[in-house]
Amino acid sequence: MIGLQFACEIEGRMNGHAKNMHFKESMKSIATLLSFLLLMAVHSTRMVGASRNQPCRKTLQRTFKLAKVVQSEASELFIIYKASQGEGSEFLCQAPVNNIPDPNISGLEASERISSIYTHLQSFIPHLKRVYEQQTDLQLPTSPLLPKLLGVSANSRNLALSINDFYHRAFPNLPLPEPAGGPTTLPPPLNVFQQKVYGCMVLKTYKEFTSNVSKEFKSFRGKVCRRRMKTNALF
Question: Which family is this sequence assigned to (predicted)?
Fold first, then answer.
């Protein structure tokens, strides 16, 4: 009897040990499966974030290239303008002119700075149009200044459209504000000298503005779309 009882106790202990080992192995398998599923979920989220981020990067690259084009054209336009104004052109840009947009970009966050670029650009475009209208009366039809003014105005409008597209891709939940204060204030009728001064100051300021825009978009390339991808990955 004692031997039989001892054998039963041994068998019970062995069965308990086997069940314990089986339980541990099952828990390891479950933990491994959960780890694998978690890694798959993270990978899938990153892939989705990257795919959503691709249009943002492409739009940013396109906008940056166009900003560089407009900057180069604005610099050339300013040189051509001064050369076409005759004697004393070096003094035209020294007189103060009111109501010309500020070339500086404001804002702390990237969304605020892009918004500032957009609103400033929208304000400059009517001034470029007015300079063209004035120079049409002052220049010969064959003057190289006139097609250059048209080209810069057209590319500036295209740049505004590209910035609008990029902003909505980078910040889909933030509305892009329109310029405050209503339509851009343009100067009243001016005499010939005043028109030359006005045109010189507009184009000089616009040249400075486009240089600032190019620098800003160069800095955005490593920040804005990457930040959006990280935000997507969190969700």
Answer: Belongs to the CNTF family.
Q: Is the pLDDT at 63 greater than 50, yes or no? A: yes
Residues 6+ apart with CB under 8 A from 84: 135, 139, 143, 144, 145
Residues 6+ apart with CB under 8 A from 39: none
Model confidence at 229, pLDDT cuts 50, 70, 90, reads: very low
Please state, in angstroms and rounded to a whole number, the distance separating the CA atoms of residues 207 and 214: 11
**How many angstroms separate the CA atoms of 142 and 148, rounded?**
12
What is the dihedral sign for C-alpha 188, 192, 194, 196? positive
Distance CA 13, CA 9 (A): 6
- The pLDDT, as a whole number, for residue 134 is 96
Q: Tell me if residue 81 falls in helix, strand or coil.
A: helix
Do 224 and 110 form a contact (C-beta atoms < 8 A)? yes
Q: How many CA atoms lie within 13 A of 99 on its CB side?
A: 11
- Tokens, residue 91: 């003094």
CA 126 and chain centroid, separation? 23
Residue 162, CB half-sphere, CA atoms under 13 Å: how many? 21
Question: Is the Cβ–Cβ distance between 200 and 81 less than 8 Å?
Answer: yes
Joined together, the tokens standing for residue 25 give 């192995």
Question: The tokens of 141 are what?
Answer: 């039809």
Tokens of 167: 């902003």
